[in-house]
């Protein structure tokens, strides 16, 4: 699934669609993996690419889904 970069709205809220990623007004990165809730990327390395896509290391574990995802150059992959 290809992700979508999202900026905070005019009120400062970051509303991520499924697969979305972005920074809040404090500069913190958030993602919304496929079929999951928003997750703040504490302890993750985020590499920005031209065009706004990101790569996240290490992989993102989603407890409520019992799954792990990799976000590479804006594309989600389930592990």
Q: Could you give a short description of this structure?
A:
By secondary structure, the chain is an all-beta fold. It has strands at 4-5, 20-23, 29-31, 39-40, 45-48, 54-57, 60-62, 67-72, 75-78.
The biggest beta sheet reads: 4 strands, mixed
Based on secondary structure, the structural category is mainly beta
Overall geometric form: globular
Our measurement of the CA-to-CA distance between the termini, rounded to an integer number of angstroms, reads 13 Å
Oligomer: single chain
Give the strand tally. Answer: 9
CA radius of gyration is 12 Å
Strand order of the largest sheet: 1-2-3-4
Mean pLDDT: 94
Strand content: 35-45%
SSE arrangement, N to C: EEEEEEEEE
| Structural domains: how many | 1
Q: Mind explaining what this structure looks like?
A:
The protein is an all-beta fold and 79 residues long. The protein is built from no helices and 9 strands. 0% of the residues lie in helices and 41% in strands. A hairpin with a 5-residue loop joins strand 2 and strand 3. The radius of gyration is 12 Å and the shape is globular. The relative contact order is 0.22.
């Amino acid at each position: 699934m290809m992700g979508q970069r999202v900026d905070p709205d005019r009120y400062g809220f970051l509303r991520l669609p499924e697969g979305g990623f972005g920074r809040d007004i404090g500069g913190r990165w958030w993602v919304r993996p496929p079929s999951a809730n928003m997750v703040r990327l504490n302890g993750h390395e985020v590499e920005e690419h031209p065009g706004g896509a990101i790569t996240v290391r290490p992989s993102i574990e989603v407890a409520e889904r019992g799954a792990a995802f990799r976000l590479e150059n804006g594309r989600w992959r389930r592990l």
